Every structure is written in C-alpha cells, then in structure tokens.
Amino acid sequence: MSDPDRLKRVDALLDGLDDVLPPPRVRAQLRLAANLTQQDVADAVGVKRLAVVRWELGKSNPRRPQRTAYIHLLKRLAERFPEAAELDEGMPTPTSEGGSG
C-alpha cells in the first residue's frame, strides 16, 4: 500500500469520528468552562433540560438532529476552552501507579 493510500485511510478513519461524543464528564466540564447552564444548552440544542442532565451523567445520548447540534456545540466549546476538554487528573491512566484512589 502506498503512502497516499495510507493517508486516505487515516483521513477516512478520522472523518468517522466526527459523530463521537466526548465522555460525559468532559461534556459537563466544557459547559461549565463557558459558564453555561444546562438550560442554556437545552435551549440551544432544542431539548428539555433533563435531556442535558442525562447526557452529562452518561445515562443517555442525544439522537439526531439534536446530536449534531450538541456535538457542534461541544466542539466549539473545546476550541475555546481546550483545558476543559481534558479529563481531570483524578481519572486513572495506564501509566498511573497503583494504590487507592
């Protein structure tokens, strides 16, 4: 396989990630970084506040067309608040040492 073919396959793989939501905790962190309420997000996306609560708790995920709008909002927030898009340091990582936590 040639390098251009490999690059096209990588691009296709990444393009498929456009519809992937960040983890629930990051969704909430992004909203909070922008000082937005759950009601603000609900109004912008076109759902009830309870739907945003459930999305941020990981109890459910948005369906189309709200999913597209919500992902767009999260991506724009991540651009403006990149530090909020990262999982906090309390999350376990493959390189973290053992112990209670």
UniProtKB/TrEMBL annotation:
Protein name per UniProt: Helix-turn-helix transcriptional regulator
Signal peptide interval: none
Residue ranges constituting the HTH cro/C1-type domain according to the UniProt record: 29-62
SMART domains the record matches: HTH_XRE
Highest classification ranks of the organism: Bacteria, Bacillati, Actinomycetota, Actinomycetes, Kitasatosporales
InterPro entries (alphabetical): Cro/C1-type_HTH (IPR001387), Lambda_DNA-bd_dom_sf (IPR010982)
Pfam family membership, one: HTH_3
Superkingdom to which the source organism belongs: Bacteria
Classification via PROSITE patterns: HTH_CROC1
